[in-house]
Amino acid sequence: MIDNGHGDFHERISRSFERQGAMRTLGAELTRVTPGVVEIELPFDMKLTQQHGILHAGVISAALDSACSYAAYTLIEPEASILTIEFKVNLMSPGRGERFLFRGEITKPGSTIIVADGRGYAVSDGPAKLIASMTSTLMVIRGREGISE
Fold first, then answer.
1. Which of 77, 78, 134 has its CA nearest to residue 109?
2. Burial class of residue 26 (count of CB atoms within 10 Å of its CB; 0-12, 13-18, 19+)
3. Splitting the chain (149 residues) into consecutive groups of 10 residues, what average pLDDT does each group show?
4. Who has the most CB within 10 Å: 3, 31, 52, 126?
5. What is the CATH number of the domain that holds 74?
6. Closest by alpha carbon to 118, among 48, 42, 55, 40?
7. Does 2 map to a domain?
8. 3-state helix, strand, coil in the chain (%, to 5)
């Protein structure tokens, strides 16, 4: 476990997540916030599918990006913020399930650049199925007007 020494990041991340219109539109919930790991879940909704009735790659990417970004938030000081500067997504299996779980986990912490890995899972009656992975590079932002928390 990563000891960040930056106080109650859980409350700060919860407030930030509530302000995300994109995650609200998707029906996503923040379900786990621990040092270096964040999970976001969302229910299946036909409005989020592509033409074949499976979860759209853009939805998967957005949820993984948020999970990775908030995992990075757990490591930074309260007055700093995070912006994604690059990510790569591998879509491994069709997004079919009753619910979806997106986990972001820090691979390499840093004071300016943080690297995170994300995994997306489809959840139904049986075991969760890996549907996507992401590698994300994030930049810590300090003192920039209009970008905070």
1. 77
2. buried
3. 59 93 96 97 96 97 98 94 97 96 98 98 94 98 73
4. 31
5. 3.10.129.10
6. 40
7. no
8. 25, 40, 35
Spatial distance between the Cα atoms of 117 and 136, rounded to a whole number of angstroms: 6
* pLDDT score for 144: 74
Give the predicted TM-score (pTM) of the model: 0.91
Any domain includes 146: no
Length of the chain: 149
| Predicted pLDDT at 149 | 59
d(CA 64, CA 52): 21
Best CA proximity match to 104, nearest among 93, 115, 90: 115
**Structure-block tokens of residue 114:** 């943080």
Residue 41 located in a structural domain: yes
- Residue 132 tokens read as 């996507």
**pLDDT score for 48:** 97
Separation CA 51–CA 42 (nearest Å): 19
Q: Is residue 114 part of a domain?
A: yes
